[in-house]
Amino acid sequence: MSHFARFARAVAGMAAGALLSGCMLFARPPKDLDYSRTRASAGGAYRATIVPQGDSIPRNRLHRWTLHLETAAGAPVDSATVAVDGGMPQHGHGLPTKPRVTRHVGNGDHVVDGMKFNMGGWWVVTFRVAAASGTDSVVFNLKL
Is the dihedral of CA 94, 97, 38, 26 positive or negative? Predict the structure, then answer.
């Protein structure tokens, strides 16, 4: 394949990607999204509740959440390793920060520092939990 053919193919691929991304920006989020702040984990091992500082979720400002974790039977989970990730599915980008659990305060509560959302729209935040009941993940949908 010639250099020109490879270049043309790369440009066509980038154009198709940009077009697809652009179309996703105008797509509406699924109508059946659950925006509740208490959710069961995907595998059913945990139940999690998010409590944003001040109870509302601000835009363009660093803030803190409390993540309450309990087992499916309702026992608080204090000894857990929790990873935080998120992003905007329609925009194809992640969170502008790298939030993380900074401390466990007991009774299943974990402080999450570094939360920030830089624009309105549909956001997804995922907590990957590893504790005595196993490894599982909890996904929260947010509408900002």
Answer: negative
Q: What tokens does 92 get?
A: 């194809």
End-to-end CA distance of the chain: 48
**Residue 108 token pair:** 């299943």
Task: Render each residue's pLDDT in the chain as its tens digit; 144 residues.
Answer: 676 666 667 656 555 555 455 545 567 888 899 999 999 999 999 999 999 998 789 999 999 999 999 999 999 999 999 999 999 999 999 999 999 999 999 999 999 999 999 999 999 999 999 999 999 999 999 999
Q: What pTM was computed for the model? A: 0.81
Burial 23-61 (b: 16+ CB within 10 A, else e): eeeeeeeeeeeeeeeebebeeebbbbbbebbeeebeeee
Name which of 24, 52, 49 is nearest 107 in CA terms.
49
Helix or strand holding residue 137 (H, E): strand 134-143
